[in-house]
Amino acid sequence: MANYIQHSPLAVRHYREQIGLSREFLAKKLDIALSTLEKGEQQDRAFSYNQIQKLAKFLFVPDFYLLTDQIQDNDIPETVDHRNINPFDDSEDLEYKSQKALHELIDNRNNLIYAFESLDESIDQFSLKLSGNDATSDAELIRYWLGVDQAKFKTQNNDDYYRSWRTLIEKNNVMVIELPNIRIKSEGMAIYYDTLPIIAILSSGQSPSRRLFTMIHELVHLGLRQSAIDGDILSDNLKLEQYCNQVAGHVLLPKNTADNLYDSTVNLADNINRIRKSVKVSRQAIAIQLKLLGLIDQLSLDAYLSEIDAKADGTNANFGIAQKTRTHNQFGKVYLQQVIAAVWHNAIPITTAMKMLRLKDADDLMYLEQKVFS
After folding, report:
1. With 0-12 CB in 10 A as exposed, 13-18 as middle and 19+ as buried, what is 369?
2. Rounded to an integer, what distance in angstroms lies between the CA atom of residue 355 and that of residue 175?
């Protein structure tokens, strides 16, 4: 006879509903009888301790949360979903994967906050605030806030200036995280907090050249004080998404600069190479802005993006990439610097840092130390 552990039916039901899962979905995924789950939401002795552990892990809570009626608040801001999801898709499975991605982001943010606190360092509040009604002015405000005109940009390993722009954003206390191999019909997410808001880039299928535009698009959401899960941002017909695209385009390539440098008698690739020498942004970002400004048509944009993607095909895949490289791409320079600095000052143990960064080999941490402080 199974040994049942006393739990809270209220807690089990609350944390299940909190992430929008049905009992049927939970039963299928955890291989627990539906009747057992139904009983567990009504009676306080229906699960073994092993089942409680499985439930807690799947619901993204510590197991002791399921043992008490004292409900803990969710630290995830309410997000607006801009994805155009096919009703024939397995929407509940997609929702769970989305929740898993969100919780991973929050865990990463909590770890970074812990690294700051361990060094007794404060984090400045996020100060960018956009109007939402003037794309050009909002873009100028972002450029000023980032210090774009004073920044020095460089390319690194064919990243098309993406990492330089990413580091510039991170230095303004925005956490930028890449989520590789997570497919939730999204290109990017913005999770707004007054302190240390999050930009997530779903990097599978997006070359570094393309990620730059996605990242600035998500920064616009944060400047509008919004949390959003975006779908295909270039194909979305929502006015808000189109506005974020307009602002992002002006941030990366201001209209007056495009008007001065674009030559309609020259082919698109040569135009982009010429503009890129002046503005130091990615080729795909320039092409997207030229389309937004009406200087090229959709067919020209699609052909150019396809050509760039074909050249980059395979270079942004994670298959065969060493864990240390994957970690560097995922967390970025500033995040890694903060965690490693905490280790230097004996503020956190090296084992804790490796757990934060999901590393198994201490040599990988040494590699990252050299990489981000060189």
Report:
1. middle
2. 18
Are residue 279 and residue 240 in the same domain, yes or no? yes
Could you tell me the residue range of the domain that residue 350 belongs to? 320-373
pLDDT digits (tens, 9 = 90+) for 292-313: 999 999 999 999 998 888 776 6
Q: Output the six-digit token pair for 274.
A: 């010429």
* Helical segments of the chain, H only: 9-18, 23-30, 34-40, 49-58, 91-118, 135-146, 162-170, 208-223, 239-252, 255-261, 268-279, 283-292, 298-312, 323-344, 350-356, 362-373
Q: pTM for this one?
A: 0.94
Q: Indicate the number of domains in the chain.
A: 3
Contact in structure between 274 and 290 (CB atoms under 8 Å): no
pLDDT digit string, tens, across residues 117-147: 999 999 999 999 999 999 999 999 999 999 9
- Other beta carbons within 10 Å of 181: 11
Give the Cα separation of 56 and 58 in Å (integer): 5
- Rg of the chain over all Cα atoms, to the nearest angstrom: 23
Q: What is the mean pLDDT of residues 34-52?
A: 95
Sign of CA dihedral 262, 264, 265, 269: positive
What are residue 101's phi and psi, to 5 degrees?
Answer: -65, -45
Structure token digits, residue 349: 């143990």
Cα separation of 360 and 350, whole Å? Answer: 11
- Is 347 part of any domain? yes
pLDDT at 313: 62
DSSP string, 206-245: --HHHHHHHHHHHHHHHHTT--EEES-TTT---HHHHHHH
The reply to whether 123 falls in a domain is: yes
Structural domain includes residue 85: no
Q: What are phi and psi of 80, to 5 degrees?
A: -95, 125
103 and 68 in a common domain:
no
Mean pLDDT of 52-69: 96
pLDDT in tens, 312-338: 665 544 556 788 999 999 999 999 999
Residue 247 CA, distance from chain mean position: 19
Same domain, 299 and 331: no
When the pLDDT of each residue in the chain is averaged and rounded to a whole number, the result is 93
